[in-house]
hypoxia-inducible factor-proline dioxygenase (Sakesphorus luctuosus), 241 residues
Amino acid sequence: MPLGHIMRLDLERIALEYVVPCLHDIGFCYLDNFLGEVVGDCVLERVKRMHRDGELADGQLAGPSRGVAKRHLRGDQIKWIGGTEEGCEAINFLLTLIDRLVMYCGSRLGKYYVKERSKAMIACYPGNGTGYVRHVDNPNGDGRCITCIYYLNKNWDSKLHGGILRIFPEGKSYVADVEPIFDRLLFFWSDRRNPHEVQPSYATRYAMTVWYFDAEERAEAKKKFRSLTDARKREAPLNED
């Protein structure tokens, strides 16, 4: 049987028998050993090279402080990539597999209809005790419905290195701690159901995140943004006096 066919069947089974039920039951799930050692290493080496070459910039805050870097609130350094850049073949392969997984979830994601996603955000916490305070990825309906994070940290010991992603599931009496270990792929709902934080990291911590958009909510968010932008343009001459 061709390898591609086996991969398709496995991804479809994982999507339908694990990812979809977990998202509906508890709001998150993760898969370990997703790419395997060889391909995972290729992704890690490319991310390390970006970091070494100074390609990462301080992460910015959204909301009222949009575009502002405040390291005590968010201490990561990031780079946005499409996956088709030179030398990013392994990252592109990873993104293709994640896309297929989400595609196989299909109409089983409740009210959501996914047609597109964001670029990939490469993120590094440099190990100086910084993290990311508790927040919600999509608190105001910007279209993001699923957050997907791929971790790249070998020999990670959370007792020594920290860096746990802690999820505070809405309405639950428990928290969920996810260690950012190498070749782990995490999914969770992006809205207010899953406030989460990155606890302080005391070793270099790498991850790659993509967000999948619900088509209807994304279109509505773009429409609102265009209306707001147009309104500001109309007001601009009045503010020049």
Observations:
- The radius of gyration is 19 Å.
- The mean pLDDT is 90.
